[in-house]
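In response to the reviewer comment on reproducibility (Comment 2.3), we provide here a single inverse folding case reported in full, input and output, so that an independent group could reproduce the run without further information from us. The structure tokens appear first.
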């Protein structure tokens, strides 16, 4: 990798660009200099991506037919170990590089067996840089390889080998595999704390997609070890049931199809899918290419949708379930209440799109369409009861679609969705460049009033929300459009809704949800997130949706005012103020513990607990929650679409028991609220 720098030692004229400006970064230095180019970012997402890269190598061994068990451990010191029983990374001397193949793989970009289709017919690695990138971004990394009856070992520091590959012992007869242990570099990752649940979600997903593999994750950081074991012989069928666990199924059994066909180069493309219908109104479709979650879809998804629509339509007309000249069924009608997983294995996938997760291989569309279309046609003939119910559900969806169209037309006549008439409660900003504009959706008129007075009118717009919006998880679009608060949100954002949604028409680059830090505020925030996830999901995927973080406490001592966003920060500020000699008062009486309730006095320190945004005056709201220079906002992202969908279904669906179990399991992550 070459990087332009200004390193010339001689004086040059402005604009000169010479050979002295070119720096060549050797080995893995490029990765350490620009880590975000290789792992996306250096936040929690990038940190966990390191583990995924190592696990994906093991999964590729499984795809090749050589690995059955993968174990991940979060060690006591915070490092991570990944062990598999695959073939083991080769350790013999690489003829071209004149060093062990193990060292070549661990220290050189674009080095590995994935570029040789005789070694890996398909692989999940996009660029063949995985484990070497992990090595480059680690404070230290150790690798052990069981091969040829021996255990080979090498250690690295920040990507560089500490010593040559050596034999440290014997392995049991016939035992092969690779063990990688690494500690992320603290100079690159500010937060090196791995989250057990985040890693477990990815391993669970991989276990569904690869039913022949058993994956296990163990957390050794606590006194009581936490372990989860994943193995699903049912594969995609069990995956669909897992996603739809909280939604009543509309079918007697899950549809499953698997097959393959050859691409233009004679290489086999494998196709696998499973789906069922539930009694809800949203489409939940998850697609994968070589185990990579293709968030942006691609040709395989187009092929699936085409096969579904064409086959169901043909069956409906062939069996007289839809009368000629009556209502016309569309693809959207056939996908209402659909939960499906589509997985393809492509020898040389070509990815495109903003996040490189959209499959572009044109030949895959026709292969998927052919495999699924034929098997679905046979299934419909063999299961006439389920087939009839699906067509009847699609007809009801078509009627609801027509009702939604009429509702949109009526709303447009009232200037509610075409952008011609913005909501009366919206205090808009003066500039109209979406990249620099922000929309605050604020809980309550009182907080909305403070926000309107405290905002920067140039780029910040305020839309107060009255009460709780409709739970869209349980309603069709035409009912949703009858809700005034939701109509105001759609109108203010300006990108449309449903099949007419277009993210390019968005009026604000940041949409910030600002709710009280209490149970009602959390409920309203969840209702809003459900609305965005179900009807404007692209806004989340494109990084437009944020959550404001108003402070919980104000700590005042003399003329000093500080704000704390949780109890830990509050205690830290109080401790610091108590030890401040400049303002300390030796006659102050101090309490032994910090009470939770606001308005408490500890010596000459006064702690106030904000009960809601409405308690803050405009200046406080600006300085703590709205000023881009001092505020904290959390960007909403979708790490795992399948688990996100399941979570929204649990929280906002009709089933009570799954919601209770979810709350009990995750209560430990909720900060203490005074309610």
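Designed residues, in position order:
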């Amino acid at each position: 990798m070459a990087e332009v720098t200004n390193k010339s030692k001689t004086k040059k004229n402005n604009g000169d660009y010479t050979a002295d400006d070119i720096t060549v970064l050797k080995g893995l230095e490029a990765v350490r200099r620009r880590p975000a180019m290789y792992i996306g970012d250096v936040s929690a997402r990038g940190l966990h991506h390191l583990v995924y890269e190592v696990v994906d190598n093991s999964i590729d061994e499984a795809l090749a037919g050589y690995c059955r068990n993968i174990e991940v451990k979060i060690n006591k010191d915070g490092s991570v170990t990944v062990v598999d029983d695959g073939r083991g990374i080769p350790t013999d001397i690489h003829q071209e590089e004149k060093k062990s193949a193990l060292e070549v793989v661990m220290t050189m970009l674009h080095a590995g067996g994935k570029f040789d289709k005789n070694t890996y017919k398909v692989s999940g690695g996009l660029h063949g840089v995985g484990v070497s990138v992990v090595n480059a971004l680690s404070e230290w990394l150790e690798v052990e390889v069981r091969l040829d009856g021996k255990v080979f070992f090498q250690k690295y520091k920040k990507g560089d080998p500490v010593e040559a590959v050596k034999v440290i012992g014997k392995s049991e007869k016939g035992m092969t595999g690779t063990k990688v242990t690494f500690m992320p570099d603290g100079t690159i990752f500010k937060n090196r704390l791995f989250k057990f649940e985040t890693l477990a979600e990815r391993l669970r997903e991989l276990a569904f997609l690869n039913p022949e593999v058993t994956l296990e994750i163990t957390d050794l950081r606590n006194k009581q070890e936490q372990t989860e074991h994943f193995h699903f012989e049912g594969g995609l069928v069990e995956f669909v049931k897992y996603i739809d666990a909280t939604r009543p199924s509309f079918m007697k059994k899950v549809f499953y199809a698997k097959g393959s066909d050859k691409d233009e180069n004679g290489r086999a493309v494998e196709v696998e899918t499973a789906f069922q219908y539930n009694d809800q109104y949203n489409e939940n479709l998850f697609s994968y290419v070589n185990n990579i979650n293709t968030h942006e879809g691609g040709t395989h998804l187009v092929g699936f949708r085409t096969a579904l629509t064409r086959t169901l339509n043909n069956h409906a007309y062939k069996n007289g379930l839809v009368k000629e000249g009556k209502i016309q069924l569309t693809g959207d009608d056939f996908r209402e209440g659909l939960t499906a997983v589509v997985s393809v294995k492509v020898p040389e996938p070509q990815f495109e799109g903003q996040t490189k997760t959209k499959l572009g291989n044109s030949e895959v569309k026709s292969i998927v369409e052919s495999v699924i279309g034929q098997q679905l046609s046979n299934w419909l003939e063999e299961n006439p009861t389920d087939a009839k119910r699906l067509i009847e559900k699609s007809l009801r969806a078509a009627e609801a679609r027509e009702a939604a169209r009429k509702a949109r037309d009526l709303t447009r006549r009232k200037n509610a969705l075409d952008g011609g008439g913005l909501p009366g409660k919206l205090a808009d900003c003066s500039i109209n460049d979406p990249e620099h504009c922000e929309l605050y959706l604020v809980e309550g008129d009182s907080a909305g009033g403070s926000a309107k007075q405290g905002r920067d009118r140039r780029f910040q717009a305020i839309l107060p929300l009255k009460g709780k919006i409709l739970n869209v998880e349980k309603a069709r679009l035409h009912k949703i459009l009858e809700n005034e608060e939701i109509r105001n949100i759609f109108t203010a954002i300006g990108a449309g809704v449903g099949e007419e949604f277009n993210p390019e028409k968005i009026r604000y680059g940041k949409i910030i949800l600002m709710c009280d830090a209490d149970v009602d505020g959390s409920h309203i925030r969840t209702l809003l997130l459900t609305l965005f996830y179900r009807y404007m999901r692209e806004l989340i995927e494109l990084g437009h949706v944020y959550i404001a973080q108003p402070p919980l406490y104000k700590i005042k001592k003399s003329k000093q005012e500080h704000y704390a966003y949780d109890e830990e920060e509050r205690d830290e500020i109080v401790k610091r103020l108590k030890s401040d000699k400049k303002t300390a008062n030796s006659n102050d009486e101090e309490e032994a513990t910090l009470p939770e309730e606001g308005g408490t006095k500890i010596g000459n320190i006064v702690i106030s607990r904000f009960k809601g945004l409405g308690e803050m005056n405009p200046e406080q709201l600006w300085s703590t929650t709205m000023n881009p220079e001092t505020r904290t906002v959390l960007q909403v992202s979708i790490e795992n679409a399948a688990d996100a969908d399941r979570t929204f279904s649990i929280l906002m669906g009709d089933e009570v028991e799954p919601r209770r179990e979810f709350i009990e399991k995750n209560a430990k992550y909720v900060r203490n609220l005074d309610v």
